[in-house]
Amino acid sequence: MERPSPMYVCNCNGIRERDAHAAIEAGANRPADIFRHCQSRPQCAKCVCDMRRMIQCRTEALRHAAE
Ligand code: FES
């Protein structure tokens, strides 16, 4: 059976969605924190908006959970 390919948030550094989620769960609250968590650095920076969206989504989920 073929395994699904991992979804990448950052193609330059090979950061997968699950890596970014793990970084956010560990407290990353800006893209630079995600890069640091993944021991990488921004290159083209095309992924920064997606990372911000992921962080925003997590923040809103936590806020709704607290209401
Ligand atoms: S896609 Fe992330 S730095 Fe290029």
Whole-Å distance between the termini?
Answer: 43 Å
CATH topology: Arc Repressor Mutant, subunit A
* Major sheet: 2 strands, antiparallel
Instruction: Assign a percent range to the helix content.
Output: 40-55%
- Spatially, the strands of the biggest sheet line up as 1-2
Top CATH class = Mainly Alpha
For the secondary structure, the number of strands is 2
Q: How many domain regions?
A: 1
Distinct ligands: FE2/S2 (inorganic) cluster
Give, in order, the helices and strands: EEHHH
Low-confidence spans:
none
Shape: globular
**What is the count of helical runs?**
3
Provide the structure class: mainly alpha
Spell out the blueprint of helices and strands:
Layout lengths: L7 E3 L4 E2 H9 L5 H7 L10 H19 L1
Antiparallel strand pairs: 1-2
FE2/S2 (inorganic) cluster binds next to loops.
Descriptive terms for the model:
67 residues; mainly alpha; Arc Repressor Mutant, subunit A; two-stranded antiparallel sheet; 3 helices; binds FE2/S2 (inorganic) cluster
Would you kindly provide a written description of the structure presented here, covering whatever features stand out?
This protein has helices at residues 17-25, 31-37, 48-66, and strands spanning 8-10, 15-16. It is mostly helical. The protein has a two-stranded antiparallel ribbon with strand order 1-2. The model has no long low-confidence stretch (mean pLDDT 93). The protein starts with 7 loop residues before the first strand and ends with a helix. It is 52% helix and 7% strand. It binds FE2/S2 (inorganic) cluster.
